[in-house]
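Propose amino acids for all 572 sites.
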């Protein structure tokens, strides 16, 4: 045990020194200098425009690569968002790029730098995902998604930080430390794709890839102020990468795109699907992008706006949205109404039961697999650690606890969640899968009855929380987790930022009147301290309808801008 602890501390020092040495070398090579006018112009181009200019010869790929590398190193200095650096080989590749060959002319991401979550396996580089036991075990080959991105012409240049176990909306592990929110220091960028969201929001990358199992590309986009679209399973390549929970299929993780702007999101997602990812990854459905589905919703909005039906989940009955998040929702609704769209409340079937089923399926092993590689002295996120320890308590203790919560304290929500938070038997797990499928059927029927085109709701009850705040709020994830359970397509776009005056809690607000999950979320809510944090909106479409989701995000964005609400990018 003692020897293992020393190995843990040794590998932390070695990996951090390795990263620091690379950064020092890069800065000496000029990557630490301010951006030139040419580089600033390049970094402000949308992905599609930059690729077009590279192909035409108007922009040198090395200029674009150098610009993003400089900004990424600035982001690292300010937020600690990077893990592995591929800048040296990437820059050499960008300098050697010949855009005039017939092969290169057809590549949709030619010469464009791409950042990826630390889970991605890239030959010659570690995928530690924050575990010191994974340090100095570099991947022996590129994952299929990396091969596909390279074949599309993209140049991977950095990997980004994640929380330990990747079951947290915080972004901390012992190996790399805390990643800061790029807007307000001391606050989390979200998780588990926190480093990626931070880098994109900062402007150190424009296109990236993350993973999502309970909100892990959506909550970071909401917390940090960037764009993401959680795909349904089988739409985006995922195999051959590193995970903390190998074999967990109760709530499958999905790889999904994250970007700095909405035009980048559409272009990047379509570019990936144009590469026929099913030829790289056996889990991907052979589904080309269907422009007609995307265009149909846009045509309806243009020609008969009243026929565009938008459902709204105002409150999931577990945690009422905070003033800041409700204001973002109201701004969105006002904008959509101004366009003439038909808005109606969507009565989601028992969101609390969705949270109960999803949370029990995700950690049906009580966290054993995620902690198999944990070394002596290695810290888990405090909130996740509390959850896992609770799951391992004797069953009778939780039954008694739940009885008191329900009957003495009147907390039906918390009682429902803790009553059966146990390691599951095979029979219990099968029963949960059956419940999952039953919930999917009920939600499908409700959606069909409502005849809505898409759904909007908040991504989370609150904006970001201060570091270590997840200790109390770890169970507050229902607004995103529901759509992992359902396997629906769900996107995030930033709407506004926290305003210390507009978003303060009402004077008569009483936190002790809330259920335990809501109290955990609100204990960190302080509009004055959170002033300037991004606040987003979630746009949802049915399973495997990424085309509809993207079109709906465009409609929402256009409506907000037409109504005078424009989100200001950081470092634009």
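Proposal:
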């Amino acid at each position: 045990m003692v020897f293992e602890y020393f190995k843990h501390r040794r590998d932390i020092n070695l990996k951090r020194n390795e990263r620091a040495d690379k950064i020092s070398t890069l800065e000496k090579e000029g990557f630490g200098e301010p951006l030139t006018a040419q580089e600033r112009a390049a970094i402000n181009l949308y992905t599609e425009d930059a690729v077009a200019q590279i192909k035409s010869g108007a922009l040198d790929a090395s200029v674009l690569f150098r610009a993003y590398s400089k900004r990424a190193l600035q982001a690292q200095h300010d937020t600690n968002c990077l893990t592995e650096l591929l800048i040296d080989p990437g820059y050499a590749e960008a300098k050697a790029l010949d855009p005039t060959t017939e092969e290169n002319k057809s590549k949709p991401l030619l010469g464009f730098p791409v950042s990826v979550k630390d889970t991605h396996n890239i030959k010659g580089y570690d995928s530690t995902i924050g575990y010191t036991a994974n340090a100095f075990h570099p991947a022996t080959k590129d994952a299929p998604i990396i091969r596909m991105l390279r074949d599309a012409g993209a140049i991977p240049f950095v990997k980004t930080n994640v929380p330990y176990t990747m079951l947290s909306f915080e972004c901390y592990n012992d190996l790399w430390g805390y990643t800061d929110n790029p807007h307000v220091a001391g606050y989390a960028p979200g998780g588990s794709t926190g480093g990626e969201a931070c880098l994109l929001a900062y402007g150190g990358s424009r296109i990236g890839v993350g993973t999502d199992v309970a909100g892990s590309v959506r909550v970071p986009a909401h917390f940090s102020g960037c764009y993401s679209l959680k795909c349904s399973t089988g739409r985006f390549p995922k195999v051959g990468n590193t995970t903390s929970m190998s074999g967990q299929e109760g709530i499958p993780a999905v790889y999904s795109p994250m970007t700095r702007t909405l035009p980048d999101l559409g272009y990047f997602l379509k570019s990936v699907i144009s590469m026929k990812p099913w030829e790289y990854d056996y889990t991907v459905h052979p589904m080309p992008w269907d422009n007609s589905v995307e265009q149909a919703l846009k045509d309806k909005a243009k020609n008969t706006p009243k026929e565009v039906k938008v459902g709204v989940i105002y409150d999931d009955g577990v945690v009422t949205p905070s003033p800041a998040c409700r204001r973002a929702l109201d701004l969105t609704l006002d904008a959509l109404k101004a366009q003439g769209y038909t808005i109606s409340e969507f009565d989601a079937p028992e969101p609390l039961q969705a949270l109960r089923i999803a949370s029990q399926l995700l950690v049906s092993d009580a966290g054993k697999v995620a902690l198999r590689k944990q070394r002596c002295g290695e810290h888990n996120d405090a909130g996740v650690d509390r959850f896992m320890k609770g799951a391992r308590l004797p069953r009778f203790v939780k039954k008694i606890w739940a009885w008191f919560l329900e009957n003495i304290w009147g907390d039906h929500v918390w009682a429902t969640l803790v009553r059966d938070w146990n390691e599951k038997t095979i029979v219990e797990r099968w029963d949960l899968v059956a419940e999952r499928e039953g919930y999917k059927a009920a939600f499908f029927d409700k959606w069909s009855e409502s005849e809505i085109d898409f759904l909007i709701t908040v991504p989370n009850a609150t904006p970001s929380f201060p570091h270590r705040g997840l200790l109390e709020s770890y169970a507050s994830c229902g607004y995103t987790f529901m759509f992992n359970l359902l396997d629906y397509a769900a996107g995030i776009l930033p709407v506004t930022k926290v305003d210390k005056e507009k978003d303060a809690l009402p004077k008569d607000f009483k936190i002790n009147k809330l259920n335990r999950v809501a109290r955990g979320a609100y204990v960190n809510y302080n509009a004055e301290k959170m002033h300037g944090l991004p606040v987003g909106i979630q746009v949802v479409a049915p399973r495997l309808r990424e085309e509809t989701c993207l079109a709906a995000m465009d409609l929402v964005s256009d409506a907000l801008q037409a109504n005078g609400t424009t989100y200001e990018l950081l470092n634009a």
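Residues 1-281 form a domain with the Amidase signature (AS) enzymes fold (CATH 3.90.1300.10). The chain has 21 helices and 13 strands.
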